[in-house]
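Researcher: I'd like a structural prediction for the single chain below. Treat it as a standalone chain; there are no partners to consider.
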Amino acid sequence: MKRIQLLLLLAAMLLVNYTFGQGKAIITGKITNPLSDEITVITYPNPLIPEEKEITVELTGNTFKLEIPVTETTLAELVHDNEVVPVYLEPGYTLNLSFNGDKFLKTIKFEGKGANENNYLAQYTRRFDEVEDYQVLPDNIKLNEKGFTEFLDYRKKDQLKNLEKYSSKSPVSEKFKVFALSEIEYGYANDKVTYPALRQRVGETRNYVAPSAAFYTFLDQLDVQKGLAISPAYISFLQNYTAHYTKAAGLAETDKLYYKKNYTIAAEKLQGNARLLAQANILKQSIQKGHIGYSEEMLKDYKVSSKQPEVVAYLEKYLKENSKNALGSLAPDFKLKSIDGSEVALSDFKGKLVYLNFWQAGCGLCMIELPHLQALTKQLQNENIVFLNVGLDDDEEKWRKTVTTKQLLGTHLYLKGMDAELVKRYDLKEVPAYFLIDEEGRFLTVKARRPNDREAANDILRHLNQGQASTK
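Model: Treating it as a single chain, here is the predicted structure.
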């Protein structure tokens, strides 16, 4: 056990000293029964920037040669047709491999510098990633708290025993052993911390009892700083580690403060590059699915603490590319003619919540939703909300007749056709489309619940109540 702790201690040193220098690795090989006429290696040069680099070469007969820039220990992916195998690389590796395309993982064999490390990876993948008995899904997730912990303990013990047995016969580098231990240690931790969420996601809620406090005591004993940035298990664990504490604080993924809380927890519980690694991934998630205002706030903080300007530049670019119609961004304003002939702008309703509906009288689903929209509008008519409906029919008279004869409630505006510029600004692909816009004219959601959803009114009331609470 002391040897394992010593090796894990080296992981922190590797993570802290992660730098980008010069070097390369060479992979040559021969393929029996090739599945395609090319082979690819995919690398991730900077663990804080989730961008991959591909190097593809065509086969010469059934042989190939790949030269890969490798500046530090790297986990790459070797891809041939639809087959993928992980490849561990250090600067100076000269690997020669052979495999049968029809039995890719079963027949792959490495020789040369780095062969022991990569033969272990292939063996590990065959045994622990391919054999169902070692997998969380589909059956082991059904186990109760005690049974699931026993399964993970058994698997981890077997993985450690396998590593020691293999490396005693086929020596591997100390760096690789640190990586292998990182995969085992944090793979265990990640599966355990995600157990409740995964059970619910796959519908295993029958007779489900939330884990006891004792179930999570392993987190207090785990050194969360010692994982490797190139370890997929460690990356996944960091994401789910902060998410666990965020959910324990009562926030769901739909809460606009969810990712900010994740970011804050990473600052509180992690240090150094482990914190920066976690926060960079949280920022990316926030930009994808969170509130743009909080994403901008977090990025401003990250710029101060990060020592890698290329990572900041990537996140700034990513934010800019994903800022259109993001949660918290200003909804594009517009001014259109209403059913009574007056001009009405979205900005006229500043200070009120807006449920914005794009629809067509010639759309079957839109017409099915109309009675539900009528009921929702009537239910919330005394609340601080406006139901703003934009008709996009090519035939204005058809739209006008539908609004008047059905005595549709709410505010009704007209814009001719789906080719209008406003349609592009709202990124509409089809109708009906529903948006919820806050009192300042910012998107609360670009996929508001449909009027026939029983939770639509509760969603709106919750936003209204949150707004009232924030002004007190």
